């Protein structure tokens, strides 16, 4: 069979042809006017996705570099509260511990967070809070505006990992009073991996610490960004791709894009439930299902490789499994970025086909199609 | 005029068509067997360029990320000697100061280093030394094997920035007893910017420090590299390009490639001197001219924009100026990576043409051509 694969994981996502083309060009100098124009466009076009008019830093590195730059640059705090209900929350705690004392609020992976515990921690001397907006490891959307509201009562700095929400779901940094937020290029924005953008509001600078690593010092990035440059040689092809991805978003319109992501997520959930599958997250009134990735419990008697292996071999579709202790227990469908209705329907059909052979699902595609409209 | 530019700066360098093509592909999962094969090839193919059989870490980030990862990961030292005779030596000192005490050995930019001062510093309690092999800011090749030999007498860890030498000039880490060395993707290797590879020999691990930044922890990279993965999402398109660049190097043969770089450098120097221009570096018996970039003093009465601006506008060729206090005082021609004889002759011709109009050079192209053979 001709190899023609489709990525349906929660990032990296499939690339739109235009983005591949934008990246496929001869090298230009990173100190040229041509590059500065690309940078300037990226810097400005990304602000509405964060919902901010603040500063923007763009780091050549993965989302984790962005998370660490955010925590380390603004680590002039005696203690930071880290909300952890998934793999990336846990990562924030590990990063935080490198720079200050961490009050590590652990919730079971896949469970909602408890806002009372968050408030308790902040009342107990934390001067900052870090949390993951959209936790791809479990398919949960954490209550960003409510966390920020509580933090504001205690005058704490708010750092948000928006790596898999910015550009696909609603993010309103300024309105919600989030001080620092991070996004990765390869998620909802739909570009290749390798860039992390950090948005920084004025108030964050009060927490700036000189003890930040040299490469991750956001002050250096923001200062250079004034003249549309980067402090260290940028990954030029990734900036060209990033700019094209942002142009596509501008054309779609961010509100339409958020609506599309939400509709795809609803259709996936409706399909799963109609098929007799069980969604993984256990939610309270404050949390919701992710709009960019859906985590579903693996049906009894189905091994990870039966589903994901067959899906890849037979259909050329890659979805994700569970991470760490969730390995084999859940599967995750990414529906973020420039994924189409066609891609989603193909993925759900293929999964339904494979699981039907095991007699663990009922026909449910029409329910999904109805939701997709 | 049709826009068709040629980059002749000391990185990023022009991309070979094959490298552009390799990068121009649909996204693949970073946890797929396909990616692991690409990673494995890169990991193995780069070792001969470093002249090592040690561990390899590949970071998604610029060369500076690699420099900081090297210094921070192996910072279990009371004091580090940093050799500084150019912009990147200075950067090493700034990075070093974030992790330990620095004995900052400053030499005038463009001057050779003084090995007696190096020995004095090591005798004075430094447990490590960091230096730049090929200093692109000034066009000097520092004496790597001699620095390492002195360091070995004092049992000091040796960290080398080989960002603009590895893959273009001779580097023999194991033979010279260099413990840690760094290379950037966009220099002699000829790939786009955005990856830094670090080679690590066994002895370096004695100096491993837990206080390394999370994103720059080389232990995490080396551990994941055992299964041909990366600890954080890699910049996939840059790995595809990097692998193709390494294939091109394998086809040329590293010895031939080093010889080509040396010949291009000699031709550039012969041309400059025959033209009546003056090379910038002031050398002693231990240092040499760089084989990957040539720094030339700007002739009296010629402004930077007269030369570099006209070159860009009229010929579509970009060369570099001087950095910081050398701005307007020197110009630098990069002849690294997959640059051809044709590119070099075009560049020297164009510069000669422009400077002739100012009556500051004599015809010298034939001298260069003779050297090129």
Automatic annotation (TrEMBL), chains A, B:
<feature type="domain" description="Aminotransferase class V">
    <location>
        <begin position="25"/>
        <end position="324"/>
    </location>
</feature>
<dbReference type="InterPro" id="IPR000192">
    <property type="entry name" value="Aminotrans_V_dom"/>
</dbReference>
<dbReference type="InterPro" id="IPR015422">
    <property type="entry name" value="PyrdxlP-dep_Trfase_small"/>
</dbReference>
<dbReference type="GO" id="GO:0008483">
    <property type="term" value="F:transaminase activity"/>
</dbReference>
<keyword id="KW-0663">Pyridoxal phosphate</keyword>
<dbReference type="InterPro" id="IPR024169">
    <property type="entry name" value="SP_NH2Trfase/AEP_transaminase"/>
</dbReference>
<dbReference type="InterPro" id="IPR015421">
    <property type="entry name" value="PyrdxlP-dep_Trfase_major"/>
</dbReference>
<comment type="similarity">
    <text>Belongs to the class-V pyridoxal-phosphate-dependent aminotransferase family.</text>
</comment>
<keyword id="KW-0032">Aminotransferase</keyword>
<keyword id="KW-0808">Transferase</keyword>
<dbReference type="Pfam" id="PF00266">
    <property type="entry name" value="Aminotran_5"/>
</dbReference>
<dbReference type="InterPro" id="IPR020578">
    <property type="entry name" value="Aminotrans_V_PyrdxlP_BS"/>
</dbReference>
<dbReference type="InterPro" id="IPR015424">
    <property type="entry name" value="PyrdxlP-dep_Trfase"/>
</dbReference>
<protein>
    <submittedName>
        <fullName>Alanine--glyoxylate aminotransferase family protein</fullName>
    </submittedName>
</protein>
């Amino acid at each position: 069979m001709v190899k023609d694969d489709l990525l349906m994981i929660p990032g990296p996502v499939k690339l739109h042809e235009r983005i591949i083309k934008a990246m496929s060009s001869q090298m230009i100098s990173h100190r040229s006017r041509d590059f500065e124009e690309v940078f300037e466009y990226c810097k400005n076009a990304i602000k509405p996705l964060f919902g901010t008019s603040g500063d923007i830093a763009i780091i050549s590195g993965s989302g984790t570099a962005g998370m660490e730059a955010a925590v380390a640059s603004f680590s002039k705090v005696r203690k930071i509260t880290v909300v952890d209900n998934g793999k990336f929350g846990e990562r924030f705690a590990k990063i935080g511990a490198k720079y200050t004392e961490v009050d590590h609020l652990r919730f079971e992976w896949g469970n909602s967070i408890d806002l009372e515990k968050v408030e308790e921690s902040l009342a107990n001397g934390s001067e900052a809070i870090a949390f993951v907006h959209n936790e791809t490891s479990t398919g949960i959307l954490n209550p960003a505006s409510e966390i920020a509201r509580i933090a504001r009562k205690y005058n704490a700095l708010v750092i948000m990992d928006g790596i898999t929400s910015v550009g696909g779901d609603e993010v309103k940094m300024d309105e919600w009073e989030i001080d620092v937020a991070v996004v990765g290029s390869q998620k909802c924005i739909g570009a290749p991996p390798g860039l992390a953008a950090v948005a920084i509001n004025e108030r964050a600078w009060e927490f700036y610490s000189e003890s930040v690593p040299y490469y991750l010092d956001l002050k250096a990035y923001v200062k250079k960004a004034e003249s549309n440059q980067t402090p260290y040689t940028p990954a030029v092809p990734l900036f060209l791709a990033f700019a094209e991805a942002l142009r596509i978003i501008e054309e779609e319109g961010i509100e339409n894009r958020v609506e599309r992501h939400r509709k795809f997520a609803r259709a996936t959930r409706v399909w799963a439930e109609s098929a007799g599958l069980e969604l993984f997250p256990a939610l309270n009134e404050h949390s919701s299902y992710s709009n960019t990735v859906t985590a579903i419990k693996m049906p009894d008697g189905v091994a990870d490789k039966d589903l994901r292996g067959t899906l890849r071999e037979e259909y050329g579709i890659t979805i994700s499994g569970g991470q760490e202790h969730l390995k084999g227990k859940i599967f995750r469908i990414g529906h973020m970025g420039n994924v189409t209705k066609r891609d989603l329907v193909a993925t759900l059909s293929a999964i339904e086909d494979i699981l039907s052979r095991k007699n663990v699902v009922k026909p449910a595609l029409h329910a999904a199609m109805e939701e997709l409209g």
